[in-house]
What does this fold into?
Amino acid sequence: HPAKSPLFLSEKKGTTKLRTGRILTAATVTRVADANVVHLEQEIPMNGSFRIYIFGGKPDITKRAIADFASNLNKKDSFYSAFARPDASEVSYHESHNPHSRFFTLATVFNAKRPDIEIRDLLPEVLARYNDHVYADDVWDKRVPNARAAAHAKMGLSEEKGGMVVVRPDAYVGCV
It folds into this structure.
């Protein structure tokens, strides 16, 4: 694509292991809400939404960046607000995949143990609303035996600073 940004990571540049146009790498994480170990790539149904995975790295390092991201999501002219549901204030609390927009689902993965993640303390309201999609990257994986955060490592993202992965509605990676 002709639009280029130094913020985009690329397998060709060696800044991520993910490839645009390929399926998201399988990763096992712990869902914070109920402590269930789950497959991250299977947590959000294929319902026509873009999936935005926020790999939050170490919460004490990235808390400010995540707050800034959420603040920009809430701006009137953001991509997220442009596709906001007109009935968002009436959406059931049990709608875990698309409470704000039918076009986007947000998921946050922290490099922390599940008991150390307090959703309401770490995440701004727009991200905390997706509480069923907040995960702890605390499951060991034999494919990256020395990693402290296996899902971050398998994606080729910094275990400290994290990164973001946008997955298209067809389940292929759109950008990192």
